[in-house]
Amino acid sequence: METSMDYLLSDIEKTRIEMIDLAQQYGYCNPDVVQCSQKLDLLLNVYGTIQINH
Predict the structure, then answer these.
(1) Helix, strand, coil percentages for the chain (3-state, nearest 5)
(2) How far apart are CA 25 and CA 50, in angstroms?
(3) Confidence (pTM)
């Protein structure tokens, strides 16, 4: 069973790869790429907050 931190790190990596793939396909200004980037930012902020609190 994955811990919540393992799940978060996995989600960060999957989102990062998805963003890179989308950007290569559609360019950096595509709304789907921007949305994925924003999701990645949110995940990274959560990760950073957890790191600060531990």
Answers:
(1) 85, 0, 15
(2) 33
(3) 0.90
